[in-house]
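Long-time lurker, first post. I've been practising inverse folding by hand and with some scripts of my own, and I keep getting stuck on stretches where the structure tokens seem ambiguous. Below is the full token string for one chain I'm working on. Before anyone asks, I'm not after the true native sequence, just a reasonable design that respects the backbone. If someone could post their per-position residues I'd love to compare against what I wrote down in my notebook.
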């Protein structure tokens, strides 16, 4: 988003145009360039922001930033030099503005974690905490490497789920369009033909052709009602309370609910393991990752945190409040005995990821033929009901 700033440098007044995500960021960028800002106003909203749908959140690739920063630090550049290099090569205005703001904070003497806190809409608290812990221990390169590995594994699981859902979604869309075409165009044509014959029709065919007559006579009203219903459905599903209620009911479905629970636990263990290996205390780390969990598991985690604060072993607290499986509880106990809880939790996350991959593969193989059968039955039923009078007429002629 572009901002116009009225600035002063010495006794000279001028106008300055800057790309920034918000007015505060534009103000900070101008001050970092040595200007005294007198006034700030938005110059307009760019088309790219409208397309992205985020007017206040810059499109900043955190994964790419971590990978590039890691490569530069490993090559021997200092932190400030690495950020300067990233800012110089960046072409996208929003990302360049973020890097310039981070660089300005570093020039002021702030550590990297403090600089990242200046842009909270880009850098999540988990990421900032990991960087802050690495600053205390002096292993920022290792911390960035752990984050890159963690994000790569999380993205890999997400991509598997998305890839597995593409074909079923396409089947549903194509099947729905075919049914809509039959009911909205073909059936009304047949209803006109059959009405002109005056023949007696089977009651199911009469029901279908009545729908065709309704579309033919009141097509505009039916379309408006359909559009209003879809809009109302989308609006209802966009409400957080409605989505939470739906998720609570979905979690009660035996197989699906358990698969969703495993997915949540995999993400929880991976993130917690990364934070522990980064040097963050256990109770603090568990509090930080609670936002990643669904409300049902979040309540269980709060009870686990309370038990751990009272001195109860983590494995026992996790088992008591349903945050483990038969495999993970054994691995947690091993981690407690060896003192390698962070590494063990990452292994539990990897184990869960493999289990999720197997569930997704099995579900996809089962869902695809089921969808094809259902869509085929629906389309076949509509076609048979349309042609049934013709079949009966042919039988009478014989």
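-- Answer (accepted) --
I ran through it position by position. Result:
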């Amino acid at each position: 988003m572009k901002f116009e700033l009225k600035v002063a440098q010495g006794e000279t007044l001028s106008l300055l145009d800057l790309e920034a995500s918000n007015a505060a960021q534009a103000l900070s960028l101008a001050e970092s360039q040595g200007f005294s800002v007198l006034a700030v106003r938005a110059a307009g909203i760019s088309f790219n922001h409208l397309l992205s749908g985020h007017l206040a959140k810059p499109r900043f690739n955190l994964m790419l930033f971590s990978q590039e920063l890691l490569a530069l630090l490993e090559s021997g550049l200092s932190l400030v030099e690495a950020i300067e290099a990233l800012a110089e090569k960046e072409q996208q205005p929003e990302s360049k503005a973020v890097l310039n703001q981070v660089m300005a904070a570093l020039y002021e003497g702030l550590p990297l974690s403090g600089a990242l806190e200046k842009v909270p809409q880009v850098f999540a608290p988990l990421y900032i905490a990991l960087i802050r812990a690495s600053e205390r221990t002096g292993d920022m390169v290792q911390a960035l490497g752990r984050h890159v590995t963690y994000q790569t594994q999380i993205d890999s699981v997400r991509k598997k789920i998305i890839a597995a859902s593409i074909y079923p979604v396409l089947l549903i869309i194509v099947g729905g369009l075919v049914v809509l075409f039959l009911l909205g165009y073909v059936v009304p044509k047949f209803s006109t033909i059959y009405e002109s014959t005056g023949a007696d029709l089977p009651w199911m065919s009469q029901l279908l052709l009545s729908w065709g007559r309704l579309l033919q006579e009141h097509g505009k009203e039916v379309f408006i009602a359909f559009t209003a219903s879809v809009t109302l459905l989308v609006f209802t599903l966009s409400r957080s309370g409605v989505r939470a209620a739906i998720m609570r009911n979905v979690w009660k479905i035996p197989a699906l609910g358990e698969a969703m629970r495993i997915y949540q636990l995999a993400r929880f263990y991976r993130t917690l393991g990364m934070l522990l290996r980064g040097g963050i205390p256990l109770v603090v780390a568990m509090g930080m990752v609670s936002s990643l969990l669904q409300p049902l598991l979040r309540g269980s985690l709060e009870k686990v945190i309370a038990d751990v604060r009272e001195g109860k072993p983590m494995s026992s607290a996790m088992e008591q409040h349903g945050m483990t499986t038969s495999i993970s509880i054994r691995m947690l106990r091993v981690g407690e005995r060896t003192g390698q809880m962070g590494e063990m939790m990452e292994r539990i996350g990897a184990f869960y990821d493999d289990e999720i991959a197997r569930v997704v593969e099995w579900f996809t193989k089962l869902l695809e033929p089921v969808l094809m059968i259902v869509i085929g039955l629906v389309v076949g039923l509509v076609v048979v009901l349309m042609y049934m009078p013709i079949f009966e007429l042919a039988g009478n002629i014989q």
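A couple of notes from the structure itself: The domain at 2-52 is CATH 3.10.20.510 (Ubiquitin-like (UB roll)). DSSP finds 16 helices and three strands in the chain. Happy to go over any region you disagree with.
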